[in-house]
Design a protein that fits this description.
Number of domains: 1
CATH class: Alpha Beta
Bound molecules: adenosine-5'-triphosphate, magnesium ion
Strand order of the largest sheet: 6-7-8-3-9-10
């Protein structure tokens, strides 16, 4: 019998959620094409928080867009849970994205004609599981219980980004992708929003992959990787 930890329970092995290998992405025609991703490999466990660093133009957004099925690589495979993204057609990738992935962008990207509550409800409606109670509960968790009926232009930047974070999580996706989520916020608001984001993601066991230049997410992350010359490396 293998030795058990002193409390008698053996922790379950961490489950691999994302496995990407040999990703190639080039822009431009023929010989003059620029190779942004050059055989990039990446993997992440369920529940892991991974930060991706890299200079501007190194390919962070390109990589997140591939993981989220927004774009398709010219070579390589991406597996998320049981799904093989590289072999799906665009319609299948869209359906998968709606169900299994949440996005948070730098520019909040809320729908301006919908209220905060309606923006939050959108992923539930798109997945055919609208549930007003879940929207109310999410508004409460976001500290926005009294802001549900406001439109995005009636909310501060920090409040808008909290709604965007709620919208990324409300349908309980396996994976959340965040591209510079605090890039448009001042330092204090950025810290508050990030703390909330981190605690919601941790409590829900969601995997988070975040591209950022900020220092705070790097301190909270389980792993920090550096994107350079088309490859991801462990930060030295
Ligand atoms: N649709 C496109 N067509 C042509 N080139 C593109 C396209 N999208 C991105 N690129 C190029 O690919 C490279 C990587 O861009 P990407 O947006 O992924 O960088 P990034 O690391 O996210 O940068 P930043 O930190 O500034 O957001 C850049 O040189 C960019 O100009
Ligand atoms: Mg970018």
């Amino acid at each position: 019998m293998p030795e058990s930890p002193s409390n008698g329970s053996v922790p379950p092995p961490a489950a691999l959620l994302i496995s990407a290998s040999g990703l190639v992405m080039r822009y431009g025609p023929g010989e003059s094409a620029t190779g942004v991703l050059q055989g990039l490999d990446f993997s992440a466990q369920a529940g892991e928080f991974v930060v991706i660093l890299g200079r501007s133009g190194s390919g962070k957004s390109t990589f997140l867009n591939l993981l989220g099925g927004m774009d398709q690589a010219q070579a390589g495979q991406i597996r998320i849970g049981d799904a093989e993204l590289s072999t799906m057609d665009e319609e299948a990738r869209t359906r998968f994205r709606r169900r299994a992935i949440g996005f948070v962008f730098q520019a909040f990207n809320l729908l301006p004609t919908l209220t905060a509550a309606e923006n939050l409800a959108l992923p539930l409606a798109l997945n055919g599981c609208f549930d007003p109670q879940r929207v109310t509960e999410m508004l409460r968790q976001l500290g926005l219980a009294d802001r549900g009926q406001r439109f995005p232009d009636q909310l501060s930047g920090g409040e808008q980004q909290r709604v965007a974070i709620g919208r990324a999580l409300i349908h309980r996706p396996a994976l959340v992708l965040a591209d510079e989520p605090t890039g448009n916020l001042d330092a204090d608001t950025s810290r508050q929003v990030l703390t909330l984001f981190h605690s919601l993601v941790r409590d829900s066991g969601t995997t988070l992959v975040m591209a950022t230049h900020s220092a705070e997410p790097q301190q909270l992350a389980d792993r920090v990787l550096y994107l350079d010359r088309g490859q991801l490396r462990e930060r030295s």
